[in-house]
From TrEMBL:
Pfam families: DNA_binding_1. Transmembrane segments: none annotated. This is Methylated-DNA-[protein]-cysteine S-methyltransferase DNA binding domain-containing protein. It comes from Zhihengliuella alba. The keyword Lyase does not apply.
Length: 125
């Protein structure tokens, strides 16, 4: 069974559109919970689930070599901006997802579920 944080991470990752990417740290910051390592663990534990894992990368746009090889066909088919030379990596900031107001409303709802006992009602500053 997944923790509430892992479920929120997975639900947020599904919102990331084709052709864009976020870093592990971006996911944690958007949810206002956890950190890059927790997001990485949640993604590593998602094997067998239908998640676009190749849209979540390190802050420098890279993935571990074995994952980058598997991610490249996805990046190409989705026209995700990648660096032309050197190891496969997503080209930030060009590829970074910029959530819309509607996306932020969904993200805030996910974040609020992580803080059910917040006396401020879960609103973020």
């Amino acid at each position: 069974m997944h923790s509430p944080l892992n479920l929120a991470i997975h639900e947020l990752v599904v919102l990331v559109p084709a052709g864009t990417a976020v870093s592990y740290g971006d996911v944690a910051e958007l949810l206002g919970a956890g950190g890059p390592r927790q997001v990485g663990r949640a993604m590593a534990g998602s094997e067998g689930e239908d998640l676009p894992w190749w849209r979540v990368v390190r802050a420098d746009g890279s993935l571990p070599a074995e994952l980058a090889v598997r991610a490249r066909p996805h990046w190409v088919s989705e026209s995700t901006p990648v660096r032309g030379a050197g190891p496969d990596r997503v080209r930030f900031p060009d590829a970074r997802w910029q959530p819309s107001a509607e996306d932020f409303a969904r993200i805030d709802a996910l974040a609020d579920r992580l803080r059910p006992n917040d006396p401020c009602g879960g609103d973020r500053p």
